[in-house]
Amino acid sequence: MPKQKSHSGTKKRFKLTGTGKVMKQGAGMRHNLEKKSTKVTRRLNQEQVVAPADAKVIKKLLSK
């Protein structure tokens, strides 16, 4: 039986840390950035840890 392929879209959106946490970019950084304050855009641009329940599904999609 062939190996399972990892999900291409998930590979582009999430990354795993050395300890196994799943990181993602903050939502709301695609458009309407002129209206948002620089303080907000800096905060949203930082990578965030994904919730444990979601992380389980994402790891499955990444085949990890």
Report on the architecture of this protein.
Keywords: Ribonucleoprotein, Ribosomal protein. Residues 1-45 are annotated as: Disordered. Residues 1-15 have a biased composition (Basic residues). Belongs to the bacterial ribosomal protein bL35 family. GO terms for molecular function: structural constituent of ribosome. With 64 residues, the chain is of the alpha+beta class. It has a single domain (8-61), classed as Factor Xa Inhibitor (Irregular). Helix content is 38%, strand content 16%. The protein contains three helices and three strands. It has helices spanning 8-13, 38-45, 52-61; strands spanning 14-16, 22-25, 47-49. The chain has a three-stranded antiparallel beta sheet. It is elongated.
Secondary structure: elements and pairs:
Layout: H1 8-13, E1 14-16, E2 22-25, H2 38-45, E3 47-49, H3 52-61
Antiparallel strand pairs: 1-2, 2-3
GO molecular function: structural constituent of ribosome
Biased composition (Basic residues): 1-15
Region (Disordered): 1-45
Structure, briefly:
With 64 residues, the chain is of the alpha+beta class.
Mean pLDDT: 94
Q: Give the overall silhouette.
A: elongated
Outline the low-pLDDT stretches.
none
CATH architecture: Irregular
GO biological process, one term: translation
Region (Disordered): 1-45
GO molecular function, one term: structural constituent of ribosome
Biased composition (Basic residues): 1-15
